[in-house]
Amino acid sequence: xxxxxxxxxxxxxxxxxxxxxxxxxxxxxxxxxxxxxxxxxxxxxxxxxxxxxxxxxxxxxxxxxxxxxxxxxxxxxxxxxxxxxxxxxxxxxxxxxxxxxxxxxxxxxxxxxxxxxxxxxxxxxxxxxxxxxxxxxxxxxxxxxxxxxxxxxxxxxxxxxxxxxxxxxxxxxxxxxxxxxxxxxxxxxxxxxxxxxxxxxx
Length: 202
Hints:
Elements: E1 14-19, H1 21-24, H2 34-42, E2 45-50, H3 56-66, E3 74-78, H4 81-87, H5 91-106, E4 110-115, H6 121-128, H7 134-155, E5 159-161, H8 182-198
Parallel strand pairs: 1-2, 1-3, 3-4, 4-5
Helix pairs in contact: 2-8, 3-5, 5-7
Pfam families: Lipase_GDSL_2 (PF13472)
InterPro entries: Ester_Hydrolysis_Enzymes, SGNH_hydro, SGNH_hydro_sf
Domain SGNH hydrolase-type esterase: 17-187
């Protein structure tokens, strides 16, 4: 049986943050991105391997080159929203997340699954136009996030909750109802540092 993250004894020196625009930090200055803030405050190297607009299909296609080849101590997996926006389904994202978790475990990496922040519907409606049905997407996002909670519990994986662990009702935490502002990145960084402390990384 795989050891739980908290049972690992390795020193954590490098983490790959793997995902889409929420990981990359869309339209936010480099120094204001959540992973950069965490790196400066903890000394743990945080490699950002997020790509704007990516789906979990894309993540799966590049995991070898951008995660395993980097030889990190661990990986934070956060993706799936674009699958819902563009493919109108969360089930394929769930399957891809399962595959990525197993491949990371096969590389003996510490694996953390992250629940992304919620969509702020009033702002997303305003800025998203008619290209995406955010109201329907939000329902699928809820189902997907619940699946992530259930999956990580069954797989005995730690879950990094950027969703319910932070109060996202303030519109100033968003750029457009989906992507976080610098203030939102500060909240995410604080949540990750708190998580690291509980996992005895710090």
